[in-house]
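hey so u asked for the seq, here:
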Amino acid sequence: MNLRNVAIIAHVDHGKTTLVDQLFRQSGTFRENQRVEERAMDSNDLEKERGITILAKCTSVEWNGMHINIVDTPGHADFGAEVERILSMVDGVILLVDSAEGPMPQTKFVTGKALSLGLRPIVVVNKIDRPDARPAEVLDEVFELFLNLDANDEQLDFPVLYASGRAGYAGPTDDVREGDLTPLFQKIVDHVPAPQLDPAGEFKMLATLLDRDNFLGRILTGRIESGTLNINDPIRAMDVNGKVVEDGRVTKLFAFQGLERVPVESAKAGDIVAIAGLMKATVSNTIGTPQIAEPLHAREIDPPTLSMTFAVNDSPFAGKDGDKVQSRVIRERLEREAEGNVAIRITETPGGEAFEVAGRGELQLGVVIETLRREGFELGISRPRVLFRDGPSGREEPYETVVIDVDDEFSGTVVEKMAMRKAELTDMRPSGGGKTRITFSAPSRGLIGYHGEFLSDTRGTGIMNRLFEKYGPYKGPITGRQNGVLISMETGAAVAYSLNMLEERGVLFISPGDMLYEGMIIGENAKPQDLEVNPLKSKQLTNFRASGKDEGIRLTPPRRMTLEQAIAYIQDDELVEVTPKVIRIRKRFLDPHERKRHSRKAEAA
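ran it, structure tokens below
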């Protein structure tokens, strides 16, 4: 069979999508004069803005008569479910490792999943042209990682290539500095087995990716496990328990060619295809002939570890920016999100005005919120909470492996701050170039909101990588934010005269002219207590003629928070108000008397 199915897996920013770009160029997928964006596989707006891959995507190239289906995967741990799903579609993986950083937490996660499925990896030591490259040590670290993950003898006998994805060359030795990616193409053809599937059996396919099209409706992508599928064939969808979801007909059948889905008349076992024509079928459903009796086995996805409450926006400015504000519309949109994104779980809270959304991490839930915001939704978002569970020894909470690369001078501060957050130091070693690599085992609860503080402590030079490790014993209370906040006690536009007076109280989050309401947080207090202030107070009318005073107001630029920073900053009695135009931080209860009443209740409890 002239077909190979392969996934590219790696830690975030180790060069997967850039390498796929070069595979496209060198296989002739693009015309000579075709204008193609850098990292062409990162196709949606959020991926382009953040420079990371969020969704797994299928593509294919033709090389020397061989059809190679390639799946590009995300590298960030929060989107690990995307990797877990697609590994069932492929027969081999290319494991990319940065020649300077070596195997990182997400490398361990995705490699463990691939090895447990029996896939034999091709190891590519990427960015070989970096001045701080250390290919021999990195290769030893990869081998050690395979041993720790209980790889079998076949998997340990992995082929190695050294490459520069950006420059577009690969070779068998670490001194390669020119050429093309022919050695990688050849290695895929030689090392990855052709799909060992039966084209003559009854048609069966496991849906692994879900997409929507305004004209075609649902589009389900997966690999055909047996049989042949033709356009207009009758099909049936069945869930993991064997219950029939729906019957339908194949209205459109697509194969992947470069960056595009191409309509085809038929496909056979081993092909990765996209099907349109079903209305209810979703990810992990088995799609087959109407006679199928047993569903295909769908891999278990690791459970969510973090949750947030998505509530209807009830601030005084609700409905001014967005047009989707009703709980019914929010529920429908979240349910649609959960269908395609198997790593998140939606539950409705009593009353139906708010929804509990559980996921893998702050970044994943932040991406969901940002997507909704751009679609015109208005939401009130709570502080992230970890999901506890009852274990044999009592209450358990999620722990994460945290790997921090930091300049030597900041390592003491980082260790001290992590110790305050109940983290245990497991490893500390110099990583060259005046940097230290520190590894911790830390409760996820303690890491909420730490990233911004970490960047300040390391002057923006530190790199932190996190990965879910295990559920372990509950660590007790962990101190949160040390400072109180400045709360507006009036509604209206902020006045420069008043803000000038408030600057000595702490750091401001707003500028003159910003619209405020009672209960909205306008800054951080320098002291631990919350403080109610009046940012609307202007100069006394009798004092207007004092010479030279008005020109003297020079305010420090306010601290403007991104969505992720705001979510990490808030406490349990606060919310982030998200609209298409603004992000505001507010108290859960806007009225000061109600706030006091609830705080007394909380203290009594």
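The two ends are 68 Å apart (CA to CA). The chain has a mean pLDDT of 83.
lmk if thats what u needed
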